Fold this sequence. Notes:
This protein is an alpha/beta fold and 216 residues long. It has 2 domains: 4-15 and 91-214, Rossmann fold, CATH 3.40.50.1000; 17-85, DNA polymerase, domain 1, CATH 1.10.150.240. The protein contains 9 helices and 6 strands. Strand 4 (166-170), helix 8 and strand 5 (185-189) form a beta-alpha-beta unit. The structure holds 1,6-di-O-phosphono-beta-D-glucopyranose and magnesium ion (MG). Magnesium ion is lined by residues 8, 10-12, 44-45, 171-172, 175.
Amino acid sequence: MKKGFVFDLDGVITDTANLHYIAWKDLAEILGIEIDLDFNEQLKGVDRMTSLEKILTYGGKEKDFSVAQKETLAEEKNKHYVELLQDLTPKNLLPGFKEFLDAARARQVPCVVASASKNAPFILQKLEVFDEFTAIVDPASLTKGKPDPEIFIRAAQSIDITPEEAVGFEDAQAGIEGIKACGMFAVGVETTQPLEQADLRVKQLNELSVDELLQK
Length: 216
Ligand code: B16
Ligand code: MG
């Protein structure tokens, strides 16, 4: 019997991958690196500094910048990204998410956000769903990013349940691995690539019945 739901943000609640892509692509161009949408798949679910390092390595420039310079570059990307976020509205919720969240809330299932994004609280406010969550894990407080299970373990702790008592929802392979590594039930939200190891795979969350999931 499951007692709580743990949601990734980008790719599960809303699709901010495209906005991350615009901001990273512009920064990469200034650095003389060209990235495309295929490469962008590798940045999904990956934290900000690791994303920058992947881009620099892709462009053969991984040794060209000091730690301080990389911090500045990551800040510049984030500034642009936050500008792009200003236009988000509830219309940017992914199809089926709000129906599923409402059904979960109607059954008093606690819902937590486990996102690598430090902008998650702001994004949830723009989407007008911030108050629907019992907790949001602060990614700045984590020692390891996905695929490490730390963020999912912390999410379960935040609602006083064990990882085995939770269902995790993820769109990235690294996220599914983190969910499975702590014994949580994994729902894969598939858009482009198939997600290995997921216990269930869907295109939209409203394909799922809250009652059936709670029985898993
Ligand atoms: P920020 P998720 C992730 O969100 C994104 O998929 C990833 O592309 C991004 O780099 C990461 O958040 C950090 O975001 O720069 O806003 O802190 O899928 O874990 O919800
Ligand atoms: Mg994601």
